């Protein structure tokens, strides 16, 4: 069995995004970039499945500029076997990403695709579900547990009311939640080894997907800032403020 | 053209998020239909029909929709989609699960978690954990939208609109429901509570969350948690507030032993009033708190309970 893991290069989760002065977008110049945390979890899960002897190959794929090769190398250092870079300078929408991923999936028919549930830049939470629709596969989203059996996978999902478990027939699509696993760190020898692992580049234009934008980014603004609060001395003052000033209790 | 809202419900109880999603939809200025799909949900449909602004409820009441699985929910919505220019669902875990699937089947994008309707094509949505607000304009002829309910008000009620039965019974295909571990709580839902008391890693263990009980009883509050508290196993996952947990905006949010990481703030910084109790005066939570108390939570919580 093959596992395909789509990964995204995003702003490092510790960095607070700043809006550009001209309000055209967020300023990413000289900002620390990293592998999307949910994608890191997806890579880890795929590697664990392989280590458990239930998969032969883990392929990572990323769509974007040349810079995404850095994150592909990171995933290779973590233990993925090979990487595919779908190269484009265009700013793509989720539907286009899902369509490109579906084309890759046609070329690399992996029984299991594991994506992050959400990219922490766009906060879209939709690409995996879209890929499931386009590839006509069942989906197990927001997974906190993935158990493979013969031809099926049981996925425990984090839902608003608690946890839900669903069974999917393979081939299937899974998206990861934070508690699925704790990703490992890449060791130095593995980082060195990753440099020699195969990384194929496919131009996005060659995949026959319409990349014309359908959503216009009109403006990006700072959120409303909260007025500075005060430090109270004790519980009595806190309660007095909540009762008489804020009037919330 | 009309607007279609897909109702969210659990065990037949219509979620308040649906009313708030209708509140967002009213701003589109079109007739609103609500789809209620589930099993034994005639009362859910009646509740939806009584929300102001609803023209008609489409009721699909059959066993194959009992768990609102993404695959057959998506097929159902697609089959109903022709008359609608806008299709909206709440950004609950149910809505987030099936809506992008609907979008892709219709060859449309989804606009996720809108917090404002600017006009019928233009919407505002938070990106980068709420550190930026994007205004996006859809150039497509059909809009697929999920709504961040915390940004909208509850609708009033009305005399019930018409309910029409639709006897589609898509066989449940795709994922097969196995089991559900339902969190049991007597308290209000996090996303509906007027007051939330929330604990972080500073609580040290699950047992100490009992210190919240008396306070929550007195305030009619729900109890929430940071990811660190959930990861450490103090409390279950459905209590997590944040970028990747629940997004809340109560009248009063009391953060106890929570440092205030970007991802936590993303889930609660639109609360009307924020109180922070933390022993570290430099904790970032104080930057968003209206009232901060620099102290040991184990001293403060019993005092607070007694004083309320
Ligand atoms: C992709 C991603 C998504 C995430 N999503 C979320 C999310 O949705 N929600 C979320 O919450 N986090 C999320 N996180 C995690 C987030 O980055 C922080 O790690 C987390 O919020 C920290 O939780 P905390 O404040 O409870 O713990 P800490 O940061 O460890 O803070 C504990 C605080 O308790 C205080 N304290 C300790 N003892 C006492 C005492 N006796 N009295 C008073 N104060 C005390 C300390 O001073 C400290 O400020 C996410 C992270 C990533 C990478
Ligand atoms: N440019 C991309 N290249 C590869 N995978 C992506 C890309 N964008 C999104 N994904 C995948 O889709 C997941 C969800 O992203 P999103 O739907 O944008 O929140 C991510 O965690 C990745 O697994």
Automatic annotation (TrEMBL), chain A:
GO process annotations (BP): carboxylic acid catabolic process
Domain of life per record: Bacteria
SUPFAM superfamilies in alphabetical order: Adenine nucleotide alpha hydrolases-like (SSF52402)
Domain Electron transfer flavoprotein alpha/beta-subunit N-terminal: 23-211
Keyword hit for Transport: yes
UniProt cross-references to InterPro entries, sorted A to Z: ET-Flavoprotein_bsu_CS, ETF_a/b_N, ETF_b, ETF_beta_N, Rossmann-like_a/b/a_fold
Keyword tags: Electron transport, Transport
UniProt GO MF annotations: electron transfer activity
Cofactor list: AMP
Keyword presence, Hydrolase: no
Complexes and interactors: Heterodimer of an alpha and a beta subunit.
Summary of the function given for this chain in its UniProt record: The electron transfer flavoprotein serves as a specific electron acceptor for other dehydrogenases. It transfers the electrons to the main respiratory chain via ETF-ubiquinone oxidoreductase (ETF dehydrogenase).
Protein family membership: Belongs to the ETF beta-subunit/FixA family.
UniProt protein name: Electron transfer flavoprotein subunit beta
Native source species: Pseudoalteromonas denitrificans DSM 6059
UniProtKB/TrEMBL annotation, chain B:
Cofactor(s) needed by this chain: FAD
Domain Electron transfer flavoprotein alpha/beta-subunit N-terminal: 3-181
Biological process according to GO: fatty acid beta-oxidation using acyl-CoA dehydrogenase
Cofactor note: Binds 1 FAD per dimer.
Keywords: Electron transport, FAD, Flavoprotein, Transport
MF GO annotations: electron transfer activity; flavin adenine dinucleotide binding
Domain of life according to the entry: Bacteria
Stored InterPro entries: DHS-like_NAD/FAD-binding_dom, ETF_a/b_N, ETF_a/FixB, ETF_alpha_N, ETF_asu_C, ETF_asu_C_CS, Rossmann-like_a/b/a_fold
Signal peptide boundaries: none
Record has Cell membrane as a keyword: no
Amino acids binding FAD: 201, 226-227, 240-244, 257-264, 278
Family note: Belongs to the ETF alpha-subunit/FixB family.
General function of this protein: The electron transfer flavoprotein serves as a specific electron acceptor for other dehydrogenases. It transfers the electrons to the main respiratory chain via ETF-ubiquinone oxidoreductase (ETF dehydrogenase).
Descriptive protein name: Electron transfer flavoprotein subunit alpha
